[in-house]
Design brief:
Blueprint (H helix, E strand, L loop, with lengths): L4 E8 L8 E2 L6 E2 L7 E3 L8 E6 L3 E6 L2 E9 L10 E10 L7 E14 L9 E16 L2 E8 L2 E8 L10 E5 L4
Antiparallel strand pairs: 1-12, 2-3, 4-5, 4-10, 5-6, 6-7, 7-8, 8-13, 9-10, 10-11, 11-12
């Protein structure tokens, strides 16, 4: 069979790019939507992070062998109380990933990212490329993995090529910090 079999998995329902703003008069909430894009790591993060997505209430870091998701969760408070936040990171790793795996950004967009930390200009990163999707080619034997956006949600697609088996897809999940 020459046709690729595509199995799409809705990876996580993120409320992408929502930024809340309240006015003092009417307490109305304004939501701003930003597209999901992936920023290439050129030294602004630790070496095990290949691409990242940074939004106000969530972050997705694409690692050499999986993905780490951080979502800010707010607790519901009684009137007059201050909400506390509890950051939560979930790491999902591909088990039995191929040694021939290659990770690349695809569909670069015009927007660029800049990272300025401290006063040492040698540690600044300017005009960093952003992509619409990231592809893990040959992540598993005859299986590719793509990360992108669909209807404002982060998605993960497993592309099972001829000779690949869906039963080979094994992902380990755990709650914790990015290693």
């Amino acid at each position: 069979m020459n046709m690729k079999t595509i199995m799409s998995v809705l990876f996580i329902a993120l409320l992408v790019g929502n930024t809340n703003a309240q006015t003092a008069d009417d307490h109305s909430v304004v939501h701003y939507k930003f597209p999901i894009t992936f920023i290439e790591n050129v030294g602004q993060w630790s070496q095990n992070i290949l691409f990242g997505n940074l939004l106000a209430d969530q972050k997705a870091y694409l690692l050499k062998d999986g993905i780490a998701l951080w979502v800010k969760r707010e607790t519901v408070c009684s009137p007059g109380e201050t909400p506390s936040t509890n950051p939560n990171t979930t790491c999902l790793r591909f088990l039995n990933s191929s040694k021939n795996m290659k990770v690349s950004g695809e569909l670069p967009i015009a927007a660029k990212s800049n990272f300025y930390r401290g006063s040492d200009k040698s540690k600044w990163h300017e005009d960093v490329t952003n992509y619409e999707k990231v592809v893990y080619s040959k992540c598993l034997e005859n299986i590719d993995v793509e990360y992108g956006e669909e209807n404002g949600k982060l998605i993960q697609q497993f592309i099972v090529n001829p000779g690949g088996r869906i039963s080979d897809i094994t992902v380990e999940g755990r709650v914790g910090y990015i290693e």
